């Protein structure tokens, strides 16, 4: 069996090196051939030089692809045209993998041949110095500044109405990519902006075609805990961007924003007029930003549909 790791990156060579070295330290799967493919997405830093310096010592074949168009979906689609593995293992460039990560994936594929898509856990790589409000249950921060995907200690099948995995810890058979096709290039981050949704959209399309997803806690990736993500400005930008992407994907019938969203936004904004503790203020600011993202999604989806009809 041929396994192929796919990592898309943009101008974060030092983080990418951290990710690649964690893969090199992981226990190698005993019955599979492993290759690592890095897609340099509009990179202008020393990413290529770093990869070249790693190649001689790297324990697995290390391949570099170049995608000049800025945008993760462009990079993913470039990778799809060059895939060699029977299964693709997607890792983000700001993750590190557990030492049993590769062996756990090999075991899942071998033990569950009826599944063609697998996902595992993504755990924030906290160091204990993060502010405690990030863990608040009374005023939860959502979307999380550091992704956290954990469906428990037992395996389970994921349905369309469940919490879907992102692309950071996803394993797909080549058959799936051949049937589902390309990633939506209107979605996903470009450069280091906070766009998203390209992975969730892809998973939804795969489920709609009848593929099943098996979650298992054994394959673990740890997400870099960037302290810059804990600022209020970042939280608001992410709340807006990710809500916009998620809503855009789920809109079945293009239309102008429904009235209840404006009511929801007004109620959240009214809360800000009251004297509030900082945690509650942060909570309602993020709710307002998320709702604004939903409204923008409806507007954008409606505008795109009109443009498609006009040029269709």
UniProtKB/TrEMBL annotation:
Coiled coil (UniProt feature): none
GO MF terms held by the record: transferase activity
Transmembrane keyword on record: no
Signal peptide: none
The keyword Glycoprotein appears for this protein: no
Cited Pfam families: Glycos_transf_2
Limits of the Glycosyltransferase 2-like domain: 5-136
Keyword terms, alphabetized: Transferase
UniProt-recorded name of the protein: Glycosyltransferase
Source organism of the structure: Aestuariirhabdus litorea
């Amino acid at each position: 069996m041929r396994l192929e790791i796919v990592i898309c990156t943009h101008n974060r060579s030092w983080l990418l090196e951290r990710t690649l070295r964690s893969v090199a330290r992981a226990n190698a799967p005993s019955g599979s051939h492993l290759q690592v493919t890095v897609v340099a997405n509009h990179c202008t830093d020393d990413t290529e030089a770093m990869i070249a310096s790693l190649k001689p010592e790297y324990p697995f074949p290390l391949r570099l692809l170049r995608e000049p168009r800025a945008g993760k979906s462009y990079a993913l689609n470039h990778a799809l045209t060059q895939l060699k593995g029977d299964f693709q293992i997607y890792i983000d460039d700001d993750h590190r993998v557990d030492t049993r990560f590769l062996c756990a994936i090999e075991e899942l594929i071998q033990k569950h041949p009826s599944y063609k898509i697998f996902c595992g856990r993504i755990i924030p790589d906290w160091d204990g110095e993060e502010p405690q409000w990030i863990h608040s249950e009374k005023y939860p921060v959502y979307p999380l500044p550091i992704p956290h995907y954990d469906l428990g200690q037992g395996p389970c099948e994921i349905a369309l109405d469940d919490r879907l995995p992102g692309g950071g810890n996803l394993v797909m058979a080549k058959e799936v990519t051949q049937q589902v096709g390309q990633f939506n290039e209107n979605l996903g981050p470009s450069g280091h902006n906070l766009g998203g949704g390209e992975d969730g959209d892809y998973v939804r399309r795969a489920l709609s075609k009848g593929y099943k997803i098996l979650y298992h806690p054994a394959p673990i990736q740890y997400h870099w805990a960037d302290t810059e993500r804990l600022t209020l400005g970042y939280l608001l930008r992410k709340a807006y961007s990710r809500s916009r992407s998620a809503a855009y994907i789920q809109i079945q019938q293009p239309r102008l924003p429904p009235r209840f969203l404006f009511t929801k936004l007004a109620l959240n904004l009214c809360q800000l007029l009251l004297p509030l503790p900082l945690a509650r203020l942060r909570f309602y600011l993020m709710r307002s930003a998320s709702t604004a993202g939903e409204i923008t999604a409806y507007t954008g989806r409606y505008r795109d549909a009109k443009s498609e009809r006009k040029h269709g």
